[in-house]
Amino acid sequence: MLDIKHSLLVCLFCLLSTAANAASNCTTTPAIQFEKSIPVSANFDQQQKLRIVYAALNYSEEPESWDDDKQKGVWQFERADGNIVYAGLTIRTHYLQAMITMGEDSFVTTVCDSENLKQTDTKIHRKVPAWKATLDDELATTAARADAMGMTPPDASLTADIRALERLKKRGVITDEEFVVISKRLESL
Q1: Positive/negative CA dihedral, 146, 39, 100, 127
Q2: Which of 6, 105, 111, 151 counts the highest number of beta carbons within 10 A?
Q3: What is the number of other CB atoms lying within 10 angstroms of the CB of residue 38?
Q4: Is this model's pTM higher than 0.70 or not?
Q5: DSSP secondary structure string, 28-51?
Q6: Adjacent-strand bridge partners of 77
Q7: Helices assigned H by DSSP within 24-155
Q8: How many other C-beta atoms are found inside a 10 Å radius of the C-beta of residue 136?
């Protein structure tokens, strides 16, 4: 009897550790991944492609930036792992994660994981394709703009800082004059 309980506990431990490892990567089955390929210039190196993804997600690499509060309803950078970037979207109690794989001449976006979206092996919440399309559109627009300019977009940390300043101005924390002075200082750096 003790051996059976011990065996069951070992099996349970193995299942839980496997589930924990799977949680660090994508867990969605291929039937509902909504994979999309977004073209990007093959002239960009890996670091430039990463900067394009950061700009599309309004992410700053700086550890302390103005834009540190997560916004609901906006795709947010979560983590990067080699040539893969994970982004998350929170809308009310719904959470959706996408994986952006940086290839030679394209970004491939894939629905990766979800919470509270009634996900099964073949179905998911009806709004998921539209939510993911916003990420795809932002990536495509940013990549096209970078290609048209012949370079990567402006530093994402500057963009994030200016947007954070705009929020501070809207909240009344800084005046219009202070906003102009600070933003000019940031742009001159």
Answers
A1: positive
A2: 111
A3: 21
A4: no
A5: --GGG---EEEE--TTS-HHHHHH
A6: 87
A7: 46-56, 128-149
A8: 19
Query: Is 100:85 a contact under the CB 8 Å cutoff?
Result: yes
Report which residue type is found at 128: V
| pLDDT, tens digit (0-9, with 9 covering 90-100), for 120-155 | 777 888 899 999 999 999 999 988 888 877 654 455
Distance, CA of 149 to CA of 168 (rounded, Å): 30
Q: What is the CATH number of the domain that holds 104?
A: 3.30.310
Mean pLDDT score, 30-41 = 79
DSSP letter assigned to residue 16:
H
Place of tokens 């000019």: 184
Range of the domain at 86: 24-153
Taking residues 169-178, report their average pLDDT.
84
Question: Which two tokens mark 13?
Answer: 């431990």
169 assigned to some structural domain: no
The count of other CB atoms within 10 Å of the CB of residue 138 is 19
Residue 13's pLDDT band (boundaries 50, 70, 90)? very low
